[in-house]
Amino acid sequence: FFCCCINCRCNKGAGFKRAPTHFPHFFKCVMESCLSGEQLGLSLKEQTVLLLFLDHCFNSLEVDLIREQVQKLVSLPMWMCLLPVNITASHTFHVPYITPLLDMLKFYTGFEISDQTGNALTQKEMTTLHYDRITSLQRAAFANFPELSDFALSNVAAVDTRDPNTLHRVSAYLCLLPELPDGEDTPYHKEFLLELLVSRHERRISQIEQLNQMPLNLTEKIIRDQNIVPTEYYSGEGGHQLSLHDYLLRNFNLFRLESTYEIRQDIEDIVLRMKPWFSEYGGVVFGGWARMAQTIASFSIVEVAKPNSGENWPAEADLAVNRNTTTAQIVIVPTGLRKHDVCFLITVRPNLLYGTRFDRRQPFVDQAWLVYVRGCEVQSMLDDKGRVREEGPDPKPKLKGDTRTFRVWLDPNQYQQDMTNSIQNGAEDPYETFNIIMRRKPKKIKKAVLETIRNLMNTECVVPDWLHDIILGYGDPGSAHYSKMPNQIPSLDFNDTFLSIEHLKSCFPNHMVKVTEEDPARQVPPFRLKKRKANEEEKQDEEDLMLVVEPHVTHTHTHTNTLNSSTQVAWAKSILIYCRLIRTFFFLISLEYELCCRLVCVRYGRVNYVPSRRLELLREVARLQESLDVPGDVSYTCETVMSLWEEYMSKAKPKPGREVTTEDVASHFPFHKYFSNAPQPVFKGQSYQEDMDITEGCYRHIRKIFTQLEVGLKLLFDVNKIFSALMFSRHDLVELGFKVSNPEDGYSRLKRRLQSTQTLHYDHHQLPPVIKNMAFQKYSNMEQSLFTRFVRLGVPTVDLDAQGRAQARSVHLSDWKDAFICTHVKSLLVCLNLAEAEYAVALYMYAERINVLTTYNGQKHGIRDVINQRCASNSSFGQPSKVTTVDRFQGQQNDYIILSLVHTKAVGRLRDVRHLVVAMSRARLGLYVFARVSFFQNCYELTPAFSQLTARPLQLHIRPHQYYSSVSTAGERSRRDQVVKDMPEMANLVYNMYMHMIQSMQQYRQVSVLMFAEMSNAEL
């Protein structure tokens, strides 16, 4: 039982540390039970639990207590006790597994880091180290081996190659091997001695050079070899990072392999959907179609640019692709290709005859005979006359014919390797064989991330000294906290953060707050905090790292408060804001109402909105000019518009000393013609104050037009430039003129200015990005963010414990309503609970302003089917705001949320409590959960949440007699809630209420008709 509990827990060594003296005996008992399981009468399931426990122990060698026991079983001396037959069998290497390990060993034995200090070495230092080794070898040959005089007097460039003469003596002199006794032959092979000297003194290719020559996109070799990208097991990246270069390199490899896994799945799905068959005429025919792919009619190499200085690969390679679009359904997605979209060119040569059925359970490479896969990036699209179609706000012209021509950029590194292979080895040119072009969704593309990491590794990256060790996982995690930094700011203005002096003292429970103002009447905000031991004359910038852990329902309000405080305290400094969502950025700069309500937050919607809004405002200025009879065309540009404002509008001033009547307001108003499209009359003439308020409102409207053209659009244009540029990689940003300063001086003032306080806002209990490769997800922890990594390392955090979006009772799970539902049905591809779907839809039909969430796509589609069948066509109900999964709804909220947990036999993915945290923090007013409580409450990970649920009634309580926005009377509050026991009862209740509403509407309509008839007769 204890082994079973340990297997289910995440931290395998936490329980053993409480009683470490008992673990050795316990481990010995488990080993004996595994060896004599049948004699002890253990079942197969119990033996499996014991083996799984041992497997966890062998994977937890980082725990000292476990490592002491496990090392006794896997130590090197035990190999000496093996039989000769077992030793021979153990020496049989598996090439697919041993080759990557040898490459990794060779890589890290020559890693660019100092063996004495541990500091990363630059390219110049690595070259100097190589020259020193070659020089020491030459000195050894010159002093002790006269027959090697030519070798000793050669230059470095001529001797860093292999030389087989007197290998053992030279190696012994260089302390690579022990001395060879006189009269004895060397026990080592000549190849080994030669490789020993060469590996020590050969010129190593720079890691940066290898990285720059590496193609970023995958090829067919990676798709065919399952060992390159493991799908179940992976060694992991649990070791310490040697340097910042090693940290970036590991992230580069993980991102590249993980994206390769996703691309492999997409290619497999698309190729099988297109059904390539071998034609009887010797070609390839396609019997199917795919939404994200299309066949290629022809292609040609347009241009191959010359290599840049110091490089041996072309700067760029352009390829023109002609694509067939014979089916109207297939045209929808491929014609949406934009500049910088990543596509893949595929060559298939199937050996299956026409009409042969593809088996998805078998490897698709053998069925479709995948030959070549190359990545490319869309440069432009050509029309039927060969002209480049520019992207912009104008309507897209309709192209004639069924052929579309795209010009794409190839990967120059991959192109160079293909051309070299074709010329030297006589291999086939892959760029003459492509027959499929495939695209992927832009949000799945990670090419820009890989390019950015590679460009950063080519740059002298400078991380602040106080942050460097924390990123690599060394030293004290709290060393970057503001309390441990030497250059703390002496005072801080909190502005209106605190409501009163009592509020201020309660926020610092572990400190003594001394008020300098003794008069209680004058102890009002804003408050300014001063540290007693701070040096007032030292004006330095505070450098620290602050992690702010947010409540689950705060959204962007904490970001706004932090930005407000930062701008008030450091108003003269530059503040860099990084947001994952564009809408969050506009919310922070107070443009949510003016901009985000109309802004299309997609890739090109932001770009197209700016000129369209500018033209709209210029048309309004033209109407204003016409109404005032101003000569000329002042609405041509923003500059001429401002001249109109300076010449006419800004000079309007009130004339004092004259009494104005109500009639004078309307007679002297100069903008009657401009506001002719407003509801008439503009002035009612009943009150002077009312008419003056209308006049001021009209003037504010006109002034707002000029203000947006002068300030607002300038801001929109700058923001538009920033986010348009973010579509490109870091290399493109640098080419566009963005400068990156990396000072090398550790005491540089510029460095201190650039690297000031860093504040990270996040809730690490939210859902991480979805990592489809289970090996990377489990063993590499790739889904972990930088914020979560800092929290796990023990970096001090500021935990916010208050929120202002949802109701307090909803936050504390006191308003959850649960119901017992029947079992779920799990098919081959979906997980569906039809009863929960019917119950959720019935509750939606009872109320409104509701989102329906679930944890599985199958249940989502099932709920949508029920909604389409029950209430989509009924105007009385309609469809809910959104029916989606918890993962998709992360970061959004609504007044009421209906949550369906689906499972009744296995906990499933909900065992990851982050799904539950996100699900129960999406509602503002009410959260309704449909689940089998008796099943979920026994799950250890879900105990904190379901312990509060079970303290409340476990059936749905409703108040049919109370309506929204109505005030409850004493009699209504005394009426008891109606308890709904199951789904059929809820469905009958909704049906009866609907029929009652229909009858009431019919009666009201009949009464209205009678009243209208009586009124007509009375008039006659």
TrEMBL record:
Among CDD domains, the record links this protein to: SF1_C_Upf1 (cd18808)
Q: List each copy of the DNA2/NAM7 helicase-like C-terminal domain by range.
A: 835-931
Domain RNA helicase aquarius N-terminal: where? 16-82, 98-204
**Where would I find the RNA helicase aquarius insertion domain in this sequence?**
487-541
**Which Gene3D superfamilies did the record assign?**
P-loop containing nucleotide triphosphate hydrolases
RNA helicase aquarius beta-barrel domain: which residues?
Answer: 276-440
What is a single molecular function from GO for this protein?
mRNA binding
Q: Which Pfam families match?
A: AAA_12, Aquarius_N_1st, Aquarius_N_2nd, Aquarius_N_3rd
Gene Ontology cellular-component annotations: catalytic step 2 spliceosome
Q: Which PANTHER family match?
A: DNA2/NAM7 HELICASE FAMILY (PTHR10887), RNA HELICASE AQUARIUS (PTHR10887:SF5)
Q: What is this protein called?
A: Aquarius intron-binding spliceosomal factor
State the species of origin: Sinocyclocheilus rhinocerous
